[in-house]
Amino acid sequence: MKQACTMTGLSYETLKFYCNEGLVPNVKRDAANHRVFDDRDIRWINSLTCLKNCGMGIQEMKTYLELCLQGRETIPERKELLRRKREELEGELARVQESITYIDHKQTLYDDILAGRAEYHSNLIST
Question: Each residue of 85-104: pLDDT tens digit?
Fold first, then answer.
């Protein structure tokens, strides 16, 4: 389990949680009843990390896993699920870009004020 954590970058608690939630199916166990992860498991765990980073919750990941376990015939449903998630991420990205643009504008304005190239005006303080 610790080796799998090192290979995937997940904490022990997170990996154990994923396993207990059934998100890592068919995990083998050794004679001491410790989980043993093979290369396929590691690749899937890395996929779970990507899905989480995409903003999927546990239930969405379970749905995606169930579709994957059904095989090739569920590819259209998986594509649709990922398409919707991508659309959400694009909206998030646009909001982040707007925020960065705002910060850049303010930084330039403040530089100009401090350098004497612009006059300071406040929307909050009456002069």
Answer: 999 999 999 999 999 999 99
